[in-house]
Design a protein that fits this description.
Heat Shock Protein 90, 6 helices, 8 strands
Length: 221
């Protein structure tokens, strides 16, 4: 067996083993949510724990199955819904400000939802880390000639000016972009920090409708 095959098999075994602790987290959170006298703030936190654990469960199942239809054009993932969910998750550990600019119409891509969520989560986590606890991250989505562009900017110091992390996030995003006929561009943003732009083809059903207009107003969330 090649080294690559060993690595993939090891990843699948790890995913298999992680399923049980995640199931335990979901069961315990569910039991706590069933308590009648649970304070509202505790209920809100538990709801977030359930949402995050369910997402991790979906990631684990995705890697266990290694679906052959990962490039299936039948996938129609709502980009803005995924972004909103990823922002809500990032807010659990980051206190800065997100500003989101989106098109007038919904945008769909052909990536599986779990893959798009991983991609967006990586981009947001990198930007939030660079911006710092009181920083700003801008997320912009627009459509152009059958493609979707997702740009994430931060007001941090820029590329190469922070202590190195694991080095896994952006390469993983770049691989997924290329795998799905897209690309990843990195540079300096208008906020003075880093800007990372992900380009992906829109889902086939949207290509015939033409590009939508970007909303004039931004929203801070």
């Amino acid at each position: 067996m090649s080294d690559a095959c060993w690595c993939m098999e090891g990843l699948r075994e790890a995913c298999h083993d992680i399923r049980q602790p995640i199931a335990g987290v979901l069961a315990l959170a569910g039991a706590a949510l069933a308590l009648a006298d649970l304070p509202d703030n505790a209920r809100t936190c538990l709801d977030q724990i359930v949402e995050l654990a369910q997402w991790q469960s979906e990631v684990i199942e995705h890697w266990l199955q290694v679906p052959a239809d990962d490039d299936d054009p039948a996938h129609h993932t709502d980009v803005m819904r995924v972004i909103n969910e990823a922002i809500a998750a990032e807010r659990a550990t980051w206190t800065g400000e997100f500003t989101v600019v989106w098109p007038a119409e919904s945008v769909f891509v052909s990536l599986p939802e779990v893959t798009m969520r991983r991609v967006v989560a990586n981009l947001l986590a990198n930007a939030a880390r660079a911006a710092g606890a009181a920083g700003t991250v801008t997320v912009e989505v627009f459509r152009q000639a059958g493609s979707m562009m997702l740009a994430v900017e931060d007001d941090g110091p820029g590329f190469g000016r922070l202590p190195a992390g694991s080095g896994l996030g952006l390469p993983a995003v770049a691989r997924e972009a290329v795998k799905h006929q897209g690309r990843l561009e990195c540079g300096r943003g208008r906020l003075g920090g880093a800007r990372v732009a992900l380009w992906l083809p829109e889902a086939a059903s949207q290509n015939v409708r033409g590009a939508g207009k970007v909303a004039d107003a931004a929203r801070a969330v």
